Amino acid sequence: MKRLKNRYRYPVILLKQLVKTDFKLRYQGSVLGYAWSLLRPLAMFVILYVVFAKFFRLGDAIPSFPIYLLVGIVLWNYFAEVTSNSINSIVGRGDILRKINFPKYVIVLAGSISALINLFLNCLIIILFMLVAGVEISVSILWVPLLLVELFVLSLALSFFLSALFVRFRDVNYIWEVLIQGAFYLTPILYPLSLVPEKYAKLLMLNPVAQIIQDIRHAVVTPKTMTLHSSYNTWLIYLVPLSIIAGCTLLSIKYFRARSKHFAEEV
Question: Domain map of the chain by residue range?
Answer without folding.
Answer: 2-266
